[in-house]
Amino acid sequence: MLGSAIWPVTLESGDLILRPIRYRDRTEWNSVRSRNARWIGPWEATNPLPGGVLPSYAGMVRSLNQQARQDTALPFVITERQAGVRSSPAIVGQLTVSSILWGSARMATLGYWVDEARAGRGIAPTAVALATDHCFRVLGLHRMEINIRPENMPSRRVVEKLGFREEGLRRRYLHIAGQWADHLSFALTAEEVPEGLLSRLPSAR
């Protein structure tokens, strides 16, 4: 176990900040999620057990923090400094590096969502690039994988912009919006981006 060697950590590029999710983010996080219910809903993971429900916000944070302590996840919120505003950076999304495997694999899976009101401004590509560069360059992971519903075109544009390779279709891969759903698998290895992913974007935020 690497423990505090990998978590907590904060990553920044310009006005964009990835920081650990916290219990005290609940009110703001719930507000953003509620405002984006229709935007995120079609891609939302669900519990396949009969009558199963997703954990509460506190339960989610508790589980993510436990995974972080076990060196198997990096649970971030995506925040952004607001021009001319002196308050804390606002939550504009969430990004989680999960299923981290060490040993001979040294790989992980990445998932994210961004506030619809801020979509199309480069937030998701920048956040994914920041997290992937950290995993490759600092943690020494070798492979990053992102799995996306075929019809989720905004998310597909993110991975395509960053040069993730499409590796094929995973049938009924995850339980999404109440049913087992197919996903396209995209991946990158560290050798494919020696210059780092952030450098692939037109300009750092």
UniProtKB/TrEMBL annotation:
Domain (N-acetyltransferase) ranges: 44-191
InterPro entries with a match to the protein in the record: Acyl_CoA_acyltransferase, GNAT_dom, N-acetyltransferase
Pfam families hit by this protein: Acetyltransf_3
Record keywords: Acyltransferase, Transferase
Superkingdom per UniProt: Bacteria
Family label: Belongs to the acetyltransferase family. RimJ subfamily.
PANTHER family in the cross-refs: [RIBOSOMAL PROTEIN US5]-ALANINE N-ACETYLTRANSFERASE, GNAT FAMILY, PUTATIVE (AFU_ORTHOLOGUE AFUA_3G00765)-RELATED-RELATED
Full protein name: GNAT family N-acetyltransferase
Organism lineage: Bacteria, Bacillati, Actinomycetota, Actinomycetes, Micrococcales
